[in-house]
Structures are given as C-alpha cells and as structure tokens.
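Re: that backbone. Tokens:
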C-alpha cells in the first residue's frame, strides 16, 4: 500500500528559485551526479506541485466525476427504455447511414473544438489573480 503523501503547508507551496546547475547536472551529468541532482530537485519541487494539484486539479476532477456519475445513474435507472415505457434505445436509434455520417463529423470537428478550448485557456491564463474577479 502506498504511503500517504506528506502534508504541505502554505510555506511549502511556494516554488523555490530554479537551480539551473542542478537541472543541468540531472540532464547532462555523469551517472554519479545524476541521482543526487534528481533527488534534490524532487525534494524541492514535490511539495509545491502536490499542493497545487490538491488545490486546483483534484476539485476539478471530482466535479467532472460527480457530473458523469449523475448521468450514469440516469442511464442505469431508465435502461433499456429511452422514454419509459414506450421506446427502447434500439427503437429510437437512427439509421446506420446517419450514425456513420455523424460519427465522421464528430471525428473531424471534436479535435478542432478541443484545440479551440486549449488555445482559449492558454490565452487567458493568469488574467485574473486569486482574490480578484466578480464579487
């Protein structure tokens, strides 16, 4: 069983100044230099990365999981009927040719839409600082 990660305080959640000599030793050093350099880098950067992940990433992933679990409960409660007790999923399904057409459209457009969201997220990152915004 994996150990529990160490508790991080607000002071540990600040990234230390980058020690480029350690980074270069970890990348370009000899085998005897690489292990201690990597150990020092991990020791310095793990607490702030872990604090960031706990603060920002985990609540986001938990909200997505809650949303998907809600839909899963809806599907489980009505299966196999789409409109209980009149239509099943198979009765309400479109023709196979229509489904293939929609699948091809989705395969083409979904990467464009996801790329747009990534670009917009990257473009507006850091514009609103913590504590600012609509109040």
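Recovered sequence:
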């Amino acid at each position: 069983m994996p150990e529990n990660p160490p508790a991080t305080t607000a002071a540990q959640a600040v990234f230390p100044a980058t020690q480029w000599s350690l980074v270069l030793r970890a990348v370009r050093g000899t085998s005897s230099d690489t292990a201690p350099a990597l150990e020092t880098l991990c020791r310095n950067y793990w607490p702030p990365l872990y604090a960031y992940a706990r603060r920002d990433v985990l609540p986001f992933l938990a909200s997505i999981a809650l949303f998907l679990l809600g839909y899963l409960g809806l599907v489980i409660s009505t299966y196999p009927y789409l409109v209980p007790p009149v239509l099943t999923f198979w009765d309400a399904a479109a023709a196979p040719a229509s489904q293939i057409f929609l699948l091809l459209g989705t395969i083409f457009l979904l990467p464009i839409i996801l790329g747009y969201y990534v670009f917009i997220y990257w473009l507006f990152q850091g514009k609103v600082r913590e504590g600012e915004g609509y109040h």
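The helical segments are 20-28, 31-78, 89-92, 96-123. The beta strands are 81-83, 87-88.
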